[in-house]
């Protein structure tokens, strides 16, 4: 057996994603580069010819496409034929794919497509971490996982096929991680040995239950549906599959933990000292991971803070989040994306507020929306400790404190107000645009 | 030595000098030398040769590194080129810890706080002498890491080194750069011998 | 539900074993996405939609098969041995495209009723 070129050690998030796709033994990869995803497909193009995989007779087709729309169309085509497919994109590329992403959902094709999230272009060109791109597709029917560490990128893509290709689910899964903040930084990553990965990943099927390509058994899909026919029913079916995915994600996480000893909460949310917390900060991605450090600092000072990281955003883990809100009642929600015109301006905070209406015990919870880190701006310890202090203020005085950066009911963490804080004075020397 | 400490290292370089690669290599070397969690953060975007570049490395022996933000108050500052010192955000961002500067001349130590330990090492000379160049540019990142093995860091708990070894640099350099690894290693050894404490 | 699963099995198997008319009755019967399984005549005998029928003048026909290429319903039949063109009047709905495309204009649309 050929010694793998990389098995364990510091690795870039993008390269961890590429190795995960190869270890899941994907059949077809369609590729088109976009910052900050580029190194995923770059690495994959060399991995398909890597001795390690050739020696194992792994036949992965790598196809260069002429645009992201074609990448997604290629995934749809290959998936119709029953292939296990993978690709990666980011930002504007994801927007360009949008049409075919809705197709994947409607045709119920199990695609795994990882996203190195980045700011969107328009009011200035930004390529740094910001979940605005993936949040734009939050209601398209795709499953969204928001990841917090390098190891989690690898593990989530490996688990992704088990969730996505589960007969009860059959929906595309998009594991998303912050561009540059995870994609280009390096942290220790451990691969799963290839043979064990094959035992873990769901066995390949010749064709899906509901669609196939075979000239002896011709079929037609995606045809015109009249209003009086089943269009509405098919849409509801996709929603049902999302809800069924909740237990599939939990089971997959449990199975993964049993085999490899790593886990990320129950696969849906990852609590950190949340059980006995007085105030709770809910977030996603690396910022929520970083909040755990802030919790530790505050606990040393005698404040009982807790953090909750939403790992699976679609399907929305309503019950798992409400379980913790029930206990604490004072909750901050940190978004690294902006939903223009939304009641709270943050996608997650609006969802959580809506979910809280489900039970009497959560209906009166106090939920403060925070937004920060847009366009890759660092959210520091100090920022996060201040967020917790605002929550403790609310708890003790019964009223959310006024801040210069509080507008329309939302705290805009890290906002340049001109008074006390200019994030990085030397920015112009960085080579940033 | 305080085992719970997370070492935060900032590298100031110019585009093309290899600061980002150095941050990555330092991660690999530290991981091989027993650090359990390491993180390298390149502060990049629009890459331009010659522009001032920052890269950060965080090294931890026991705790998980969860902070992905850029280093603001570095324990160790590595300056790839003495011409960077007067730029904003380089010398004036040093508040404590140790500074390592690549220069073959004397530098103005008054730019740095008094309690800092300051080292210099002429790695550009070493690289040129060994003909360790790529596209005419001397490769100075691996030699600088060689010098890094020799320097000390001092805080209230005492004086310590990072616990990195030249042997590990050799191993990683051979893995990464193939046949040129030997030359890189040779330069790293030379740099570790020529590193000078000036304050 | 079990019966539905059985039907599903048959559909997956072969063109011949497929039920002539595939219909789902409710949300709970439906497959995950919209599908149809083409078989001959699954929309009924479309021949009765016709008011004009194509008739070919075999003396003038040069067997260029333009009519065969352009027929939207696949009702132009070609004899395997002689290559002679004829029409499947069970399913020809009388659209007249064959007559329009015929370069020799030897297909005539004759009034039926």
Strand order of the largest sheet of chain A: 3-2-4-5-7-6-13
β content of chain B, as a range? 25-35%
What's the number of extended β-strand segments of chain B? 11
What's the pLDDT, averaged over the residues of chain B?
87
Kindly state the mean pLDDT of chain A as a whole number? 90
Based on secondary structure, the structural category of chain A is: alpha/beta
CATH fold naming of the largest domain in chain A: Rossmann fold
Largest sheet of chain B: 7 strands, mixed
Level-2 CATH architecture of the largest domain in chain A: 3-Layer(aba) Sandwich
Instruction: Please bin the fraction of helical residues of chain B.
Output: 25-40%
> How many discrete domains of chain B?
1
* CATH classification, class level of the largest domain in chain A: Alpha Beta
| Distance separating the two termini of chain B | 22 Å
Classified by CATH, the class of chain B is Alpha Beta
How are the SSEs placed, and which strands pair?
The complex is a heterotrimer of chains A (433), B (199) and C (113).
Chain A: E1 8-12, H1 13-23, E2 28-31, H2 38-47, H3 51-55, E3 61-64, H4 68-80, E4 85-89, H5 91-107, E5 111-117, H6 132-135, E6 143-146, H7 150-164, E7 173-178, E8 186-190, H8 194-200, E9 220-221, H9 231-260, E10 269-272, E11 279-283, H10 285-300, E12 305-310, E13 312-314, H11 318-328, E14 330-335, H12 347-356, H13 360-363, E15 366-371, H14 381-397, E16 406-407, E17 410-412
Parallel strand pairs in A: 2-3, 2-4, 4-5, 5-7, 6-7, 11-12, 11-14, 14-15, 15-17
Antiparallel strand pairs in A: 1-8, 6-13, 10-12, 16-17
Helix pairs in contact in A: 1-2, 1-7, 4-5, 7-9, 10-14
Chain B: E1 6-14, H1 19-32, E2 37-43, E3 52-60, E4 76-79, E5 98-102, E6 117-121, H2 123-129, E7 133-134, E8 137-138, H3 141-148, E9 152-155, E10 158-161, H4 166-177, H5 181-194, E11 196-197
Helix pairs in contact in B: 1-3, 1-4, 3-5, 4-5
Chain C: H1 2-13, E1 35-36, E2 52-56, H2 66-70, E3 76-78, E4 85-87, H3 97-101, E5 107-111
Antiparallel strand pairs in C: 2-5, 3-4
């Amino acid at each position: 057996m050929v010694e793998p070129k990389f098995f364990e050690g510091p690795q870039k998030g993008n390269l961890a994603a590429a190795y995960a796709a190869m270890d899941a033994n994907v059949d077809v990869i369609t590729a088109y580069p976009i910052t900050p995803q580029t190194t995923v497909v770059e690495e994959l193009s060399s991995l398909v010819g890597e001795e390690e995989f050739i020696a194992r007779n792994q036949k992965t087709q790598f196809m260069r496409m002429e645009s992201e729309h074609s990448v997604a169309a290629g995934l749809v085509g290959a998936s119709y034929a029953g292939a296990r497919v993978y690709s990666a994109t980011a930002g504007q590329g994801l927007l360009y794919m949008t049409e075919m992403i809705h197709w994947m959902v409607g045709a119920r094709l199990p695609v795994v497509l990882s996203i190195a999230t980045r700011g969107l272009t328009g009011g200035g060109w930004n390529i740094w971490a910001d979940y605005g791109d993936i949040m734009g597709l939050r209601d398209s029917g795709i499953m969204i996982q928001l990841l917090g560490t390098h190891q989690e990128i690898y593990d989530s893509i490996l688990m992704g096929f088990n969730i996505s290709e589960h007969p009860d689910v059959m929906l595309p899964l998009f594991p998303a991680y912050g561009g540059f903040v995870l994609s280009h930084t390096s942290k220790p990553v451990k691969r799963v040995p290839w043979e064990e990965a094959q035992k873990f990943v769901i066995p390949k099927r010749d064709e899906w239950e509901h669609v196939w390509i075979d000239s002896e058994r011709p079929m037609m899909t995606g045809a015109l549906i009249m209003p009086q026919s089943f269009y509405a029913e098919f849409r509801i079916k996709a929603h049902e599959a999302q809800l069924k995915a909740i237990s599939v994600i939990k089971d997959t996480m449990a199975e993964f933990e049993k085999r490899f000893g790593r886990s990320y909460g129950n696969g849906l949310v990852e609590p950190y000292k949340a059980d006995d917390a007085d105030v709770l900060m809910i977030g996603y991605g690396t910022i929520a991971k970083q909040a755990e450090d802030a919790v530790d600092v505050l606990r040393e000072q005698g404040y009982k803070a807790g953090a909750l990281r939403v790992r699976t955003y679609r399907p929305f883990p309503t019950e798992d989040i409400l379980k913790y809100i029930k206990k604490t009642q004072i909750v901050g929600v940190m978004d690294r994306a902006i939903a223009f015109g939304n009641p709270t301006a943050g996608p997650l905070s609006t969802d959580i507020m809506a979910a809280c209406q489900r039970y009497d015990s959560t209906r009166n919870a106090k939920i403060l929306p925070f937004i920060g880190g847009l366009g890759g701006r660092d959210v520091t310890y100090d920022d996060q400790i201040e967020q917790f202090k605002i929550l403790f203020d609310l708890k003790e005085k019964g009223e959310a404190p006024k801040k210069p950066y509080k507008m329309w009911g939302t705290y805009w963490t890290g906002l340049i107000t001109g008074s006390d804080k200019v994030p990085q004075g030397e920015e112009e020397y960085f080579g940033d645009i | 030595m305080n085992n719970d400490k997370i070492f935060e290292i900032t590298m100031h370089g110019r585009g093309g000098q290899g600061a980002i690669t150095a941050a990555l290599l330092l991660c690999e070397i530290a991981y091989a030398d027993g650090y359990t969690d390491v993180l390298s953060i390149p502060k990049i975007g629009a890459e331009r040769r010659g522009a001032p570049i920052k890269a950060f490395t965080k090294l931890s022996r026991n705790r998980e590194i969860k902070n992905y933000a850029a280093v603001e108050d570095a324990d160790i500052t590595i300056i790839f080129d003495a011409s960077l010192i007067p730029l904003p955000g380089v010398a004036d961002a040093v508040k404590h810890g140790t500074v390592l500067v690549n220069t073959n001349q004397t530098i103005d130590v008054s730019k740095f706080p008094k309690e800092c330990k300051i080292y210099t090492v002429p790695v550009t000379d070493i690289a040129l002498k060994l003909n360790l160049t790529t596209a005419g540019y001397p490769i100075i990142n691996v030699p600088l890491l060689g010098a890094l093995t020799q320097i000390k860091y001092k805080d209230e708990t005492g004086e310590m080194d990072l616990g990195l070894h030249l042997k590990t640099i050799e191993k990683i350099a051979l893995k990464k750069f193939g046949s040129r690894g030997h030359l890189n290693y040779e330069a790293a050894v030379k740099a570790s011998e020529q590193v000078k404490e000036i304050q | 539900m079990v019966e539905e699963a059985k039907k599903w099995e048959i559909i997956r198997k072969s063109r011949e074993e497929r039920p002539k008319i595939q219909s789902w009755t409710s949300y709970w019967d439906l497959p995950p996405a919209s599908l149809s399984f083409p078989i001959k005549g699954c929309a009924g005998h479309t021949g009765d939609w016709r008011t004009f029928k194509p008739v070919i003048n075999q003396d003038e026909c040069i067997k260029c098969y333009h009519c065969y290429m352009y027929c939207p319903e696949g009702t132009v039949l070609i004899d395997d041995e002689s290559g002679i063109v004829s029409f499947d009047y069970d399913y020809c709905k009388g659209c007249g495209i064959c007559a329009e495309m015929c370069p020799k204009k030897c297909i005539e649309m004759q009034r039926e009723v």
